[in-house]
Hints:
Elements (H helix, E strand, L loop, with lengths): L1 H21 L2 E5 L3 E6 L4 E10 L7 E7 L10 E2 L3 E4 L5 E9 L8 E7 L5 E3 L3 E7 L4 E8 L7 E6 L5 E5 L7 E8 L4 E8 L8 E6 L2 E7 L9 E4 L2
Parallel strand pairs: 1-9, 2-10
Antiparallel strand pairs: 1-3, 3-7, 4-6, 4-8, 5-7, 8-10, 11-14, 11-16, 12-13, 12-15, 15-18, 16-17
Amino acid sequence: MLSISLFAFFGCEENEDIIAVSQIDYVAFGNATYSTGVDPGGSTNVGVTVYASTIESTDRAYNVTVDASSNAAAGSYDVPATVTIPSGTNEGTLMVALSDVNLGIGINKLILNFDLAAGQFSGDSTTIEYIQNCTEVTAVLDMVFDDYPEESGWYITDALDGVVASGGPYGGLSTATENITLCSGRDYTFVFTDSWGDGTAGSYSLTLGGVEKASGGNSGNFTSDPTAFDTN
């Protein structure tokens, strides 16, 4: 009889805790990170999903702020001050507008937080990462492989050492050509890779408008010597 009484007592306490938790006014972003690109001179919208812990019969609005640690270019984003979760659901969408204003090179990181009133609780921040899509120039990469094309690859980094394009491996091919879209008037670095590290990955030539910007082959290490080039 004692064990039955204890079970009933603790069972009731647990149920009360579950009910209490379900009534907490809690809101959270759907994803930790969102990624996109903005065309030169253009704009785009990113829909950030927001979830609440309860479903209510009236609309609810939650304040949203931009974190001071964000490095997104000034003027390149427009974040609404609030996000609304409609009545009858626990899901809403925060529409963030992004535009090509002072984007330059590198990744813009826009970090968003909730700014809640007393008695409200929230999850972690979310980050929108965006870059300027480059469509101005197209570089042509011609490659000749040795007997092991499955070991060959390449990548291009920008002036901030961020990888902007990559390719490979090329199993079954003796040659390959890649068309690579880049920004005009920028500095880049090209690296030809050999995953086996025996220095026999082949050779390459990177041209822009018929002008050779970079060429060479593997130097005997895991990667070739980095070759700097520009798109002027």
